[in-house]
Amino acid sequence: MADGTTGRTLILLRHAKAVDPDPYPTDLERPLSPRGRRDAAAAGDWLREQGLLPDLVVCSTAVRTRETLDGLHLDKHDKHDKHGGHGGHGGHGGHGGHGGHGGHGKTVPVVFEHRVYLGPAHDTLDLLQNSPDVATLLLIGHNPTLSMLSDLLDPDALPDEGLATSGIAVHTVTGPWRDLETAPLRAHHTARG
Hints:
- This protein is of the alpha/beta class.
- Helix content is 25%, strand content 23%.
- The protein has helices spanning 34-49, 63-72, 114-118, 121-129, 145-153; strands spanning 8-14, 56-59, 97-103, 106-112, 136-141, 167-173, 185-190.
- Strands 3-4-2-5-1-6-7 form a seven-stranded mixed β-sheet, with helices on both faces.
- A hairpin with a 2-residue loop joins strand 3 and strand 4 (106-112).
- Helix 1 crosses helix 2 (63-72) and helix 4 (121-129) crosses helix 5.
- The termini are far apart.
- Residues 77-98 have low confidence and may be disordered.
- This is Histidine phosphatase family protein.
- Pfam families: His_Phos_1 (PF00300).
- Residues 75-106 are annotated as: Disordered.
- It comes from Dactylosporangium maewongense.
C-alpha cells in the first residue's frame, strides 16, 4: 500500500510475440510463439534486475497476455531476496478474474480485465485511476493502446514506433492513482531472450 507521500510506479508491458492468427478462431486465443516465451522470460529478468516487482498486476484476458504474465516468472527470487518462499499462480478467471503470482516472498494479486484487451487508451487510463492504492502496478496489454497510454502520460517520450512486443515503459506516478493524468517516462526497454 502506498501513502500520499510515496511515489508510485506504473509498468506498461506489451505482450510478448504471439503466433500468427490463422489457425485460431479468435484473436483472443492466440498463444505466444517460442520466441515470445523466451522474450517474456527476459522481460521478467529485466524487471527483477531493476527492482520493479509489482504489488498488483492488471492483465488483459487474451491468451498471449496471460502467457506473457506466466513467462515473467514473478515467483522467481533474485539474489537480493532473503525471504525465500514462493507464490503460486492462481486461477484464470475471465472478466475481472483474480489470480496470483508470487514475487519477493509474497503473492502478487492479478486481475484479468477484458477492458485492457478492448482499449482504447483513455478507457485504460480510467481503469488505472480506479486501481487500489498500491506502490507498483504492472499492466500487461496490447498495442496500440499501451503505446498511446504511455504517450498520454508523457507525450513524445517513447520512440515513434511505440512499444515493440515485450516492450516495457516505466512511468513515475507522483500522486494517487485516482489523480493520474501525467507521469514521466523513467525507463524504456525491449526484452529479448
